[in-house]
Design a protein that fits this description.
Layout: H1 3-16, E1 20-22, H2 46-49, E2 59-67, E3 84-93, H3 98-112, E4 120-124, H4 129-139, E5 146-148, E6 153-154, E7 159-170, E8 191-204, E9 210-223, H5 224-231, H6 244-254, H7 262-283, H8 292-310, H9 322-329, H10 335-338, H11 340-374, E10 379-380, H12 382-392, H13 396-405, E11 409-410, H14 412-433, E12 451-452, E13 459-469, E14 472-474, E15 476-478, E16 482-487, E17 489-490, E18 504-508, E19 511-520, E20 526-534, E21 536-538, E22 542-547, H15 549-573, E23 579-584, E24 589-594, H16 601-616, E25 621-627, H17 628-633, E26 647-653, E27 657-660, E28 675-684, E29 687-694, H18 695-716, H19 723-757, E30 761-763, E31 766-772, H20 778-791, E32 796-803, E33 806-813, H21 815-818, H22 824-834, E34 838-841, E35 845-850, H23 856-861, H24 863-876
Parallel strand pairs: 1-2, 4-5, 10-11, 12-17, 31-32
Antiparallel strand pairs: 2-3, 3-9, 4-7, 6-7, 7-8, 8-9, 13-14, 13-16, 13-22, 15-21, 16-20, 18-19, 18-22, 19-20, 23-24, 24-29, 25-26, 26-27, 28-29, 30-31, 32-33, 33-35, 34-35
Amino acid sequence: MRAAEIRRKFLEFFASKGHEVYPSASLVPVDDPSLLWINAGMAPLKPYFDGREVPRNPRIASSQKCIRTNDIENVGKTARHQTFFEMLGNFSIGDYFKREAIHWAWEFLVGHMGLEPDRMSVTIHPEDEEAFAIWHREIGIPENRIFRLEDNFWDIGEGPCGPCSEIFYDRGERCGCGRPECDVQCDCDRFLEIWNLVFSQFNHNPDGTYTPLPKKNIDTGMGLERMASVMQGVDTNFDTDLFQPIIRATCGLAGVEYGRTREGDVALKVIADHIRTAVFAVGDGVLPGNEGRGYVIRRLLRRAVRYGKTLGLDRPFLYRLVPVVGEIMGDPYAEVVEKADFIARVLRSEEERFLETLAEGEQLLERYIADLRARQKTVLSGDDAFRLYDTFGFPIDLTREIAAEQGIEVDVEGFEAALRAQRERARAARQDVDSMQSRRGALADLETPSRFVGYAESEVQARVVALVSDDRLVERVSEGQVCGVVLDVTPFYAESGGQIPDRGVLETPAARLEVEDVQKAPRGQHVHTCRVVRGTLTVGEPVRATIDRTYREDITKNHTATHLLHKALREVLGNHVTQAGSLVADTRLRFDFSHFGPLSREEWDAVERMVNEQIWRNEAVEIREMPLADAKAMGAMALFGEKYGDVVRVVKAGDFSIELCGGCHVRRTGEIGLFKIVSEAGIGSGVRRIEAVTGRHAYRFLDERVKVLEEAADRLHVAPAEVPAKLAQTLDRLKELERELESWRDKWTRNQALALAETVQEAHGVPYVAAAVSGATQEQLRQMVDVLREAVPSGVFVLGSRSGDKVLIVTAVTPEWVKQGLHAGRLVKELAAVAGGGGGGRPEFAQAGAKHPEKLDEALALVPELILRQKASGSRA
């Protein structure tokens, strides 16, 4: 059975059990700083599990693409470790529980996958008698195939947690260790875990206690690759149809054969795994970089390139595997086909860059070895080996091999210690944020509907259906309180899709409340955060709800402009551009998007011009609701991080832009008035950010710029249009004057040095110059010393300068006096100490700084005595 069929059957099975099938979320988490990547099927569903949102259907099923890189070094060396995988899962948010989860898992495995019941065993938590009873008495698994394990408890800190039950498949004695007592607890590969059922029935409280959850949840996970290995009767995940086409293609490029050598197979498996991860990550907008997700992808690509070199692949090759991944995965994940050209371009660029970096690493290693030889050492430090590994992608084996050719050993233990330290830092960073606290709140169970009419209405008569104060439902709120208000009908937009909430007022004859924020409750009602400025308000009371119309109009201009900007970026930069976040406020808009470099001036201007042309056309903005499939057929773009139902809202601006969107928009593009980009910058690996203004805020921005230009014109005594030319002329003249000044400085410095050469004195047979030079910089002191060494071939030179509240000192000793024991570094150290400083350097030249300018003359007076000391010391040596 092919993996695609397993995926399809799984989703169809749970759809038949009343589950809503969700498409896979992006690998990039949305509004979840605790995760670097989506790493489990339940990760995108956290808002449902922690109570922030209530799903349309409490039964959910999905095949979720995931990335985990905590065991990257094991990839290719074991049968199951991967960085990218698909997690098949069924979930219940307060609906069914253990009985259904267990029965349906068994029904699917036996009835639809055809697995033999007597080849399956299960594990449970020792105290989970309910699960034991279902498995033993209802499913019929013998007691000797039900294992009670203490580790069978899912808990990641504060929040929902509970026991779990794992299903294992017996792959047969040929896959095992041969021991009679071999079972699911054995580390051999005979018993393969294929499904984990998590029963979230407790809340882990801040004080460490556990209390039953009012609504219990189900979270299950079945790795598609593992299931495919069982169904296809192969030994490893890499032998399934999810990997073999990639491995065959790599063999063709390298001229090698899979299955011939262990080392070759490891390399082929690593490449197959890492190319899948890179293709999907880049497809979701993550570009190789030096931090965060970008660094993970860069590291995986470099690791794959290194393994490619062991197969004889010395030129970029990974980009040629992108279409192969598309052929395998393109049906459920269209993005890997639609963006194939862009993904291949990114990968090829990264490969070429890394191959250059490898060459740089080889040069650095050669310098390390040369330095060791100069110091008559034979062991390369673990820190240096780790630096080669971490910065240049050098595997420790390659470092050892090159070093051994030069007769140098490598401190492998030191390298491994540095590697462990890095892993511990990464693990600690993950653990610091890896928890899911329950955030149900007072409105979690409020089912009274609240209807939003703000697309068409700005003022309505409503009724108060709920009041919240201090996270408790209350009957009344009074003057001075800050409270939450839920109305049966409201014109106030709740923050979502990047659009900020409305503000305005709620009024009754006896009360006035200012609306400061509007958010959605778990069941979708709009909760108005209000400050009671007058009177009291009670549940059931009628109110007049009015939004701030000017505030809303500014927001709508920015929201429609954001759609136009998104489309313009795709037109100018390419279809790889996807939204990675946004903010639609009243005074500005912010748009984050995937792109691999800063916009050129020409691209910036083209995007800005294209948006304004759509505004000046004054096109109608049409808003319609339609089935999701119809909207996609029209080419509507989905917004980043949004979840969509079967019926969606489509916003179409002329024939230019069409997006799925639940936000507020202008009626015609001309209402935006004007669009101006304020800034464009990178905010992360492969993610750029544009900030822009529209309407009156764009006018204000340009007006301020014009005033700055006019002020510059006044100061330059030219017309505004002539400012650039006059400024260029002024800067050219300034550079010319700076060159002339530098020339005079050089002459002054040389003349000062030549004058000092006439002041040579002698101390104990050693010629020397010791002088303070007023106003000289450190560089000028160095230059003077160089001139002195030309003019006075033999001697000691000490120059000092006062600069504000600091002292600068430079010393030099000619070679013949170095041989007799004089040392510029030791000399400057003692002189600087007199003036409250420190420094040092080589025997021939040294420099120092100090903080007591008034003591410079005292320090210079010591030069003859210090020369005598050093000379005497050298004689004794």
